[in-house]
Structures are given as C-alpha cells and as structure tokens.
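Sanity check

After download, print the first record. It should look like this:
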Amino acid sequence: MKKTCAFATVILLFLLAFVVSPVHAQEPQPGNTISGDQVIIGNNFTLEKNETLEGSLLIIGGTASTAADSKINGDLVLIGGTLTIDGAVEGDIVSIGGVVNLQDSAMVNGSLTMVGATLSRSPTAQISGSISEETPRFLNFDFLRDNGLKPPLHLKTNPLNRILTATFQALVMAILAVLVGLLLPRNLKNTAIALVREPVVTGGVGLLAMVVAPIILILLSITIILIPVTLLAAIAFALAVVFGNIVIGYEIGNRLSAVFKDTWHPSIAAGIGTLLLSLVTGFAGVIPCVGWVLGFLASIIGLGAVVISRFGSTKYATKVISAVIQPAEEDLPTEPPVAPEE
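Expected structure tokens:
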C-alpha cells in the first residue's frame, strides 16, 4: 500500500510540471518561506539554512540540496538527478534513477523509496519510515527461477512492476532523445514540420508502413540469402519507429517551452517531451485491453512522418503531402466550354 501511494505521489507531482513554472523564477532568500509546490527541470535548487519550503519538490534531471536547519513540509520526488539532504523532510522521498545523499543532520519523517537509484546515507541520518528498493521487471534476469520454464508472456505481473518498467523505459527514451537532439537537430526539425503540417497524411502513411513492413520482412526471410537483408531492414524499421516517437516528443517539448515562454535547445525539448510522452503511453498501457491504443497511435503517426520525410534528410515530405492533398490541375475534371449568348 505504501509503495502504491509513493508512486501515486510521483504521478501527481509530475503533472505539476504542466502548471507550475520552473523554480528559478522564485529563488529562495535566506530565512524566507517558499509557498507552493516547486518543479525543477534541468536546473539547480538550494534551500539554505533556516529556510522552509511549504510544499512538495519535484526534480527532473536537475540538482537539489538542502542545508542544515532547513525544512521541506511536503514530499520530495527525484527523477534522474542528484539530491543532497542535510535538513528535515516531513513527507516521503521517492527517487527514480537518481542519486540521494543523506548528510549527517538529515531527518526524513516519511518513507524512502528507491527505484533503480543510489543511496548514500550518513550513520547519523534519521529516517522515520520504511526504506524500500525496487527493480523493474525487465531488469530482473532470474525471473525463471521461481516460475519453472514458463515464457515471460505467461508471467503474471502486477501493476506496480508494469509502472516501474514503463518509468525506466521512459527514462531510456528521454536519454536517447537528448542524444538525437544533439546529433541530428536538423533532421528532427524537418520531420516535425512534416508531422505538424499534415498529421492525417502522416498517420495514414504510418499505418500503411506498420502493416506492409512485417509482410515484406517475412517474404525476405524465406530465402537464406536474404536473411542479412531482413535483419538490416528490421533494424531500420525499429529505428524509424523510435525516431518517430522522439519527433512527437520534440514537438511536445516545443509546445511546453512556449507555455513557459522560453526557447529550449532541440535536445532539451526532445528529452523532456519524449519523457512525458513515454510516461503517458507507458502508464496508459497498464489499463487492460485498451491501454495499448495510445502508444500505437503515437507510433504510427511518428512513423509516417519519418517515412514521408526520409528521416528529415530532404524536403521530400512537402512533395508527398502536396501530391496527396493537392491533386494536379490536369487531373481535375474540366467543364465544357459555354457558348456565348447572342
């Protein structure tokens, strides 16, 4: 029950990223009290001595530290960053893929949940609640030990393990998106332009590619000679799907930067947007039967944009969209000439 509440806290605080401005807009001053929940995205936050935060703190890819005699009257969530605590935390601490350092005078009056994170604790640091460490199911390689020789598809997984797996997959996708934004910013922008200009066309092309590609791969694999070609084609198809999801995340990141009235580098926009997209589609996948629909729609739309833009390397997308939505004038029916009136 405590673990479920902890991850519910993560989701609720993560949603604050849409409505709360970054914390650098309200820098703490010595002896002051900061009111309201704070969100840090790729930034730094420091709570000095005798300062109090009346709210919860969410850190995404940033660094936060609290000095001795400081206090946080709320929960603290760390996603892929570094946290150093030397003061008091009245709520729970949840760390996903980050590093938590508890100094000598640290005092946590709630529980500590570590999900693939690293904990460094001083012997004098106090934790009133429980300490739990979780590992996503896909990182647990000894799952066959307690289940005989049953394949993974027959394993019964609880929602918590599925949420943990989705969270780690989202973090991996976000890191990959940052690399793509650094190495291929122009390709990312060109593909996003094709996506935004005509999403219906890209969705149709993506659906067609999703149906036709497996058939072609099966036909290629029939002969032994073409097996290497099949492997290369399968890798290219997988990369196209991943790149398409990153393109959608990049566009989401651009929209978020407009909300914050700021301009983000393509790598930052792609990383944050892809993280949000992957978390939403991953958590939606927990829903039985229909949870896969949202992720599938995102995949076919992104794949279509990649196909018609050729990974954003050319302006081919403009020609394809024009050919689909703007038929040539010679193909249009012509009206018979009208005789002049006498």
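If your output differs, re-run the checksum step. Summary of this record's structure: The longest strand covers residues 38-41.
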